[in-house]
Design a protein that fits this description.
This protein is mainly alpha-helical and 248 residues long. 68% of the residues lie in helices and 0% in strands. It has helices at 2-15, 20-26, 30-59, 61-79, 84-95, 115-125, 134-149, 157-170, 172-184, 192-195, 207-213, 227-247.
Length: 248
Amino acid sequence: MKRLRYFPLLLFLFFLPGCNMAEMEAQSDPVADDSLLAVIKMRIEEKKELERMREELLRSPVGYSIKKYKPIIKKYAKRYGFDWRLIAAQIVQESGFREKARSRVGARGLMQIMPFTAREISRELDIEYIMRNPRENITAGIYHLNKQMGYFRDARLEDRTQLALASYNAGAGRVFDAQEISAYFRQPTNQWPTVRPYLSLLKRSDWELHLQVWPDGKPRHGYFYGYNETINYVNHIWERYQLYKKIL
C-alpha cells in the first residue's frame, strides 16, 4: 500500500521539466551502453554455441552411448557421491564408450579395468563378469574411482577428485611418490596443480633429487615414465566434465 501511495509523486517527478531522472537518462554513457550490449550479445552467442555442441554430441555415437548407459552411470555415481557427468567424461577418455576396448597392457571395457583390479573388485562387490559385461564394468570402475578418493581425504573436493583420477590412471603409488617430492619442496601435497609437475620427476635420471627425498635413493613405488599420459588424462577429463556440466 505504501508503494501505491507514492506512485503519483513518482509520476510527477518523472514528467517535471528539469527532473533529475530525465537528466540521468539524457546523460547516459553511450560507451557503457555499448559495452552492456556487447556482453549480452556475447552471452547469447555462447548459449547458441553450447546448444549446437549439445545437439552435435547427442547425435554422435558417444552421445548415443551416454544416453544408453546413463541410468547405470547415474545409479552408481549417486551411490558413491559423484556427478554422473564426471563419470561419462572419464569413460569417453578411457574407451570412447567402446564396449570391447582393450589396452596394450590388458585393461578392458568401458572403464578399462585391469585384470588384477577386476579380480579384487569381484571379491569385494560379488560381481562376476566385470571384464565382459559393460554394466558391471561401469559399476566396478566407479567403485574403483571411489577407492582412490579415499587416499586423498585431506584435499578439497576438486583436488581430491583430480588426484583420484591420476591414481586411477597411474596407480596410487605414483601419486604418493609425487606428493613426497612436493613435501620435500615444502609445497602443498593435497592440491593437484602442485603435485602434478612432480610426477615428471620420478624418472631414473632424477636420481640426485631422489637421494634427497628417499633413504634408498629411488621412488618408493619405482620409476615412472608415463607422467604425460597421466597429466593429460586428468586434464582432458576435467575439461570435458566442465563442458558436460553445461550441455548435459
